[in-house]
Amino acid sequence: MRLASIAVIVVATVAVPTDRLSAQAADPISQAIKQAWAGAKRNITESADQMPEDGYGFRPVDTVRTFGQILAHIAGANYVFCATAKGEKSPFAEDHFEKTATTRAAIQKALADSLAYCNQVYDSLTDARAAELVAMPFGMGKGARAGLLMANTGHLQEHYGNLVTYFRIKGLVPPSSRRGQ
Asked: Which domains does the chain carry?
């Protein structure tokens, strides 16, 4: 029995790529932040792709944003969060794309560009950089870069929750449910 246990441990250790183990061991906090970002980004990107053009103008009631306005809002907020994390001035105001991107194609481009901009920050994140104090946007004071990037990821997931409701109202299955996640 003991020999079998040792064999399982050895096989399991050999089966995991060593570069992945060393990256996780070296920077486990930033790796977790990157994984959360990847999941949120996937939900938002697949939502933007799945909704047909006519659904971009859909809103359940007059007092909330349309589907497209939510995605445009996310694009603008991504720039604000990620520029702050980079130590730069945001190239766009938070509401820029809500005011200027009115078609599915324009909203998808703004969203994709904002995600690519943020990828630079998340890709270069290490645990040491995650712990650095930065000025936070939206009057949030100073905080760890990790907190700023987690707030951005949380913002995407918050609005994904809105989009899920929009999908369900329209009789569509949202992306994460389609994937079984």
From this structure: 63-175 (1.20.120.450)
Average pLDDT of the chain to the nearest whole number: 89
Do the beta carbons of residue 127 and residue 27 sit within 8 Å?
yes
Q: How confident is the model at residue 19 (pLDDT cuts 50, 70, 90)?
A: low
Which secondary-structure segment (H or E) carries 133?
A: strand 133-135
C-alpha 12/C-alpha 23 separation (Å) is 17
What is the helix (H) or strand (E) element at residue 15, kind and residue range? helix 2-15
* Contact between residue 114 and residue 79 where contact means Cβ atoms under 8 Å apart: yes
Burial zone of 175 (CB within 10 Å; 0-12 exposed, 13-18 middle, 19+ buried)? buried
Relative orientation angle of helices 145-169 and 28-50, to the nearest 10 degrees:
30
The model's pTM is 0.85
Pairs from 106-111 (Cβ < 8 Å, separation ≥ 24):
107/48, 107/56, 107/68, 107/71, 107/72, 107/75, 108/48, 108/49, 108/71, 110/71, 110/72, 110/75, 110/76, 111/44, 111/45, 111/48, 111/71, 111/72, 111/74, 111/75
Rounded (to 5) percent helix, strand, coil in the chain: 70, 5, 25
The total of other beta-carbon atoms located within 10 Å of residue 113's CB is 16
**Chain center to CA of 15:** 29
